[in-house]
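quick one: nicotinamide-adenine-dinucleotide bound model?
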Amino acid sequence: MPTVGGMTPFIYNGAPGRVVFGFGVIAQTPDEVRAQGCRRALVLSTPQQADAARDLSERLGELSVGVFTEATMHTPIDVTERAMALVRQTQADCTVALGGGSTTGLGKAIALRTDLIQIVIPTTYAGSEATPILGETVDNLKTTQRGPKILPEVILYDVDLTLTLPVGLSATSGMNAIAHAVEGLYAQDANPIVSLIAEEGVRALGAALPRIVRDPMNREARSDALYGAWACGVVLGSAGMALHHKLCHTLGGTFDLPHANVHTVVLPHAAAYNAAAAPLAMARIARALGVTDAPRGLHDLARSLNAPLSLREIGMPESGLDRAADLASSNPYWNPRPIERDAIRALLDDAYFGRQPAATIPSPKAAHA
Ligand code: NAD
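yep, here:
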């Protein structure tokens, strides 16, 4: 590729959006609703976070027109239709999504249909709040789309809300976020700004997650992790994803495996698959984690968090590995290393048994990362 000075030419699409980050910022929700010119907010949550959603609705007072607490993983369209009925009935003029990627997904699905303003208050590290991407499920089939209506207008990152995120989910949700940054670093449309953000996201989460596992109420570590999650979400929203995200999409959708767990298990193996083809990305990931080998460093990080390491332990049937390899290699897509069916099958085998990835052969190029 021709270069300008030392830079490889690139295109950068910045996602607009307002971010308020801090402790206790949920208290600012009424002001943020008003600042968007809205007066009729519908609060969204999962059933598990219904109490918090009701509290928020009370806090909003006359600015709230109600609460919808049925948000579900992978945004099933029947749930969206029930929420849409409430949107019409209450004449809501914005949504306030309080929760993880599942709740954010519902807010996005509503915005896609109505262009209502979205205010998102994330409580996991999934990063969906920073992306114009929506995955919806109809009859167990998940389809993903991008579009400007989908991107939330306001994100309120309240560190205090993440203190209750269970340690196991903190670890896997954090690894899910790191996966966005890893793939952003070797994306076809990678660019220097997004790579800076990606490396910083891996660094912040890589340092914070072990501290959270040791001490879940550590507010400093929680704030570093949430900051890292935002950075990784920005990367996901700005750069195209490759093998890792496609594999997780296939495994999660076809075998109904929990989203963040699949990301955690697959990431070291997807990185190992791409390592020789993306040496600069690997060097930056390794630098961010303070290790010498990126795929091994990711595996060791997951292990240190007591996170799942194998597909076997998260419910994947061994009999499904061939089908998964077929599915993952049937639709061609861009990846730093070409998608080869047998190599993908071997990757899945390593992930199924939770093997440590083989050491990466050092590349002279990596020294210039
Ligand atoms: P989730 O939103 O499904 O949350 C998991 C569970 O944890 C839920 O029961 C939730 O109520 C609970 N929970 C969340 N935060 C909590 C907290 N602080 N304290 C206590 N309980 C809490 O999980 P997730 O991993 O954040 O989201 C997964 C979904 O997000 C998937 O459907 C995935 O496809 C989607 N996603 C989309 C994007 C995108 O850009 N479109 C990005 C990442 C994830």
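The chain is about 50% helix and 10% strand.
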